[in-house]
Amino acid sequence: MKHWIQINNLPIRYKLISHFLIISIIPIICLGLLINWTVERVLEEQVKDNTQQLISKVNKSLEFYINNMQSITYSIGFNEKVQHFLDADNKIEQSPPNEYDIQRFLRNFTTLSPEVAGILIVNSNGDYISNEFFTPSTKDLTEESWYKDAVNNNGIFTIIGQPKSRGISSLVNYQNDEVVSVVRAVVDPYADEVLGVILIDLKLRVIKETMVDVRLGKTGYLMVVDDQGRNIYQPNDPLIENIPKEWIAGQNTGTFSKEVDAQRLQFIHQKSAFTNWTTIGVFPAEETVFELREIRFYLVSFIFLLMIFGIQISYFLSNSISNPIAQLMKFMRKAKSGEFDVRYREKRNDEIGMLGRSFNKMLSQINHLISLTKLQEKEKREAEFRSLQANINPHFLYNTLDTIQWMARKQKANDIAEVVESLAKLFRIGLSKGRDIISLDEELDHIKSYLQIQKTRYRDKLNYQINTGESIAGLYVIKFILQPIIENAIYHGIKERRGPGHISVTAQKKENKLSIIIEDDGAGMTELQLQEMRQALSEAIARTENKGETRDKKGYGTLNVQARIQLAFGEDYGMHIHSKENVGTTVEIVLPILVDDTGLVKGDVTY
Questions:
Q1: Which terminus of the chain is more solvent-facing, meaning fewer CB atoms within 10 Å of its CB: N or C?
Q2: Running DSSP on this structure, what letter comes out for residue 601?
Q3: Which DSSP letter does residue 373 get?
Q4: Mean residue pLDDT across the chain
């Protein structure tokens, strides 16, 4: 462990030089020891993969032909005339079919599918129809092994393989090793009885044409055996005549090698799940040695060149990495000592260049943050001074208003005294000792004072009523949320109507929320004005943040109230407006239930 720590303390330049020298020496040792085993294994894997791909394509071609034979058996079995022929007990009530018509029907398949050598249809009585096959009259085809195999499989398509000792002959005189037979029994779906069997011979020529051009190396080839290990196809002059069944038994795919006649042969096989045939690739193992020798020559040449240029390249690469890092370390030490004007100047697009640019950006951000901190400290001191001044002025103002009220009452000017008292109360509640959350009673006292002042101005034209219940006693609200709404009701509602107007304020609990409804019977709004106002309320937060565009526009006070409520409690709370021209306007303010001035909602954790 101590030795490893000492290595970590070495300069990065020496580490890099050692690293490059080691990786230039290790390949000489490792490649020299592993070259034969590794490259030979790679070549074997490549040969195996390529051969497996060829075998897979060949299997797909064979499956296509066999699947076509299966489709032909279904097409023949569903033909009405063929079904009538297979109906030995005459259950189908129609005239017997013309044998010539069925033969002509079968001849269509041999014409459209040249791979078909012949088709034979046999019913349960042993009668048959074919355009290619014939049999002695004394021969009972239902006793044939292929017929019995089809019956035993009960309608499942079956590949018999190359025919042997069967009692039928072909007009074209195909030899047994030139065709492969497939059969399928036609079953009555209602009685579950075998009506007959359809036999088709497939020409092996199509299999030969599929494989004749496939070559594995110089002398390798493909061959096909059935599930019993019998040869279906193999080329002339094969490397091995027959492959024992136990060599590939129980394996759907695989590879192995065997010594045959003093020659090592490689076998790669793959079984088709549809045909149950196994396609086998056979080739001499020594045919991969030539490629191995060529690769060995190039590898040895590469190792020799690596030894010649290894030291020079390792020294150059180590310097190209360590020098910029050392320069960055120098700049970092200067930045650590407080010199934030240093910059990394080298133009590189690699990781070191990215690190240098990040270092420059970090220093720029540090300088910016330092300047910003100084500016914020200055603004904070100015804000504290303005806040102190703003608190002094209202205190002085409402104290002065109390003095004026006292003097007015002394002079018997009670109406002036009431107005001054209401105005003083407005300022006193407005300060609220710096609190943003006040009791609902204080907020209602605030608008009472405001309405009393407006009543003095408008006299009989303005009437108001404030209704509250005991259930809302002791609740708290955000301050200054009612005055802007009352002001709009007066200036845009009551003032614009003819005759006296009325404003009512009702506070009540509604669905576990606080509902404050302000109603007036003033001029109301048009439908267009109402839609614009509702749209503005839905965008209240965004509009109030852009003070330069909104501050001087009509409705800013209302939008400010909406924004304050939604910023404090979320979009589930706020104002809802209903209005009708020449009828009046109703504004409902929905708030959460606040039980103290901390802003905590009853039943919730925080707000």
A1: N
A2: B
A3: H
A4: 78
Rounded distance, CA 407 to CA 402, Å?
A: 9
Sheet order of strands, 193-203 included: 128-130, 116-123, 193-203, 179-188, 158-161
Q: Which letter does DSSP use for residue 204 in this model?
A: T
Phi and psi torsions of 265, nearest 5°: -110, 145
Mean pLDDT of 96-119: 83
pLDDT tens digit sequence for 302-325: 777 777 776 677 777 777 777 777
Nearest to 180 by CA among 164, 156, 196, 157: 164
Domain coordinates in residue numbering, the chain: 11-308, 435-591
Residues 6+ apart with CB under 8 A from 540: 559, 560, 562, 563, 566, 574
pLDDT at 204 over 70: yes
Q: Give the model's pLDDT for residue 252.
A: 83
Structure confidence at residue 125 (pLDDT): 85
Q: Which letter, b or e, does each residue of 96-135 get, where b requires 16 or more Cβ atoms within 10 Å of its Cβ?
A: ebeeeebeebbeebbeebebbbbbbbbbbebebbbbbbeb
First CA to last CA across the chain, in angstroms?
55
Model pLDDT for residues 236-258, shown as the tens digit of each residue: 888 888 888 888 877 888 888 88
| Angle at which helices 556-569 and 527-538 cross, to 10° | 40
Alpha carbon distance 559, 575 (integer Å): 9
For residue 391, what pLDDT band results from cuts at 50, 70 and 90? very low
Q: Which CATH number fits domain 11-308: 3.30.429.10, 3.90.78.10, 3.30.450.20, 1.10.760.10?
A: 3.30.450.20
Tell me which CATH code domain 435-591 carries: 3.30.565.10
What's the angle, vertex CA 395, arms to CA 550 and CA 452, rounded to 5?
70
The type of residue at 467 is: N
SS3 497: coil
| DSSP E strand boundaries for 261-335 | 263-271, 278-284
